[in-house]
Sequence to fold (406 residues):
Amino acid sequence: MPLQGKKILLVIAGGIAAYKSLDLIRRLRERGAKVRVIMTRAAQEFITPLAVGAVTGERPFTELFDLAAEFDIGHIRLAREPDLIAVAPATADFMAKLVHGRGDDLASTVLLATDRRILLAPAMNPAMWANPATRRNVERLQADGVTFAGPDAGEMAESGERGVGRMSEPLAIVAAIEKNLFDLPARDALAGKKIVVTSGPTREPIDPVRYISNHSSGKQGHALARMAAQAGAEVVLVSGPVSLPDPSGVKTIHVETAAQMLHATEGALPADAAIFAAAVADWRVANEASQKMKKAAGKLPTLSFAENPDILATISRHSNLRPRLVIGFAAETENLIENARAKLLKKGCDWIVANDVSTGTSTFGGTSNEVHIVTQASVDSWPMQTKESVAAGLIKKIAASLGGAR
Ligand code: PMT
Fold:
């Protein structure tokens, strides 16, 4: 029984998908989990506490100001006792409440008071899921370390409606819960360690309004920083310009150019490990114009370039500030492993994470990545997975490598 002894608190919010939560409870229990349930007032419009009580074998919690329940368990114990809190279905309104830290009913108060992992299984109309407010809320919650299962695409409960917004099937939510409980690094895996991460692109100015850059979104680097913080590390993230929110619990330093990124990275040392996931521009414009360059008929501007400092190579060769573990990334369009190993040797890092960025891949900007961990002696190839999963795997590997105290 894979979930034997695990305590799951399931919050059921008010959506038509709430009927699937009964099956979710059954699936969790048959895997050995102990399931407690909180139902919001709106959830009780869709399924009854009686039905939930019948499948859990105990009364669901519904009220914040319920004297009997408060003396029995208490909302703070409800928040602290589970191994994981799952919200299924998570409605748009419930997610908005979480973002703002509202605590006006039992479910939101418990989520505000918890230090446990939170997994949301959203369910809503496709227009609500696509709404800019919901998009912002999802990004904020991800930056706060909340994970998501779904939503899926398909037919909605409302007749004639299709799109992304269906709650994932119970077994997919169970799989996401198991992944959360067993695949993520332990919460103290990097306790007492300091990790520096670079992320995102750099921008090298041509003139006050134009620049040279690349397609890095910062998703991979930010996921690493977030995961390291969730594993208990003190984390400094040096980020180029990205549109992601700063990860919670991480000191984020915003920079634009490679020179600024080097300066901020050096300033963040000493550290136990440094991970260089940023896509740093190799060159900057040597003849940067101080005023906006004017368009003149028949005349094309000529740019000349100067080499940027190599941040990874500089830190790898630092005589006294080199972190114990230095990890580079290699973004390649051909001869992936061969070129990555050449970079490892040239730049002097301990591991290099090779990923394919050739046309047709969505390594730059996408949500998934297929990586190969290259050392001088070995290549460890991981399957295509989300950038979150890549980050979880790398942070576990880093924790194992760093071992004991600093
Ligand atoms: O940001 P995402 O959209 O999520 O995409 C993730 C990613 C593709 C950017 C990431 O996975 C990745 O591969 N990052 C490294 C990109 C890169 O610039 O690779 P490179 O092969 O050019 O550089 C090799 C290493 O040297 C990298 O660790 C890079 O950070 C570092 N470098 C490069 C140039 C330079 N001047 N200074 C450096 O430190």
